[in-house]
Amino acid sequence: MNAGGIDAQRITSMLAQLRAAAQKPEGLGGNAIANPVQKTNAASPTSQVSFSDALKASLDQVNNMQLESDKLGKDFAMGNDNVSLSDVMISGQKANIAFQATVQVRNKLVTAYQDMMNMQV
């Protein structure tokens, strides 16, 4: 079956590769996020996550994805044989989706802040 010039088998293969990349554990390449968890007590089995640390780590990850996407695009445009067009397009889409998600989170935070400020005490 051919969907707009792209074989369905190739689409399925690409989706499988994306799923495999998304399931890689931290530290095995990709864009692993730094663990923002901070221990409050060494003897305590629970840990607390600082909101500001988690937010900063998330923003850093989105920034790194955009920088990597830009670098891959420039490398491809310069004729680097190690960079394929599909790598450039996938990286660009990942960066775009991450940015859109970040904007949505920001919008929700602003709305929550405005709702709190409009509450009568």
Number of strands: 4
Strand content: 5-15%
Overall shape = elongated
> Helical percent range?
55-70%
Give the SSE string. Answer: EEHEEHH
The separation of the N and C termini measures 63 Å
Uncertain runs are 27-41
Mean pLDDT: 80
Largest sheet: 2 strands, antiparallel
Structural class: mainly alpha
Biggest sheet: strand arrangement: 1-2
Topology:
Elements lengths: L1 E2 L2 E2 H15 L14 E2 L9 E2 L1 H27 L7 H33 L4
Antiparallel strand pairs: 1-2, 3-4
Structure, described:
The chain has a domain at 49-121. It is 62% helix and 7% strand. The chain is built from three helices and four strands; from the N terminus they run ββαββαα. A two-stranded antiparallel sheet has the order 1-2. Strand 1 and strand 2 (6-7) form a beta hairpin. Helix 2 runs antiparallel to helix 3.
What distinguishing features does this structure have?
single chain, 121 residues, mainly alpha, two-stranded antiparallel sheet, two-stranded antiparallel ribbon, 4 strands
What's this entry about, in short?
The protein is mainly α. The chain has three helices and four strands, in the order E-E-H-E-E-H-H.
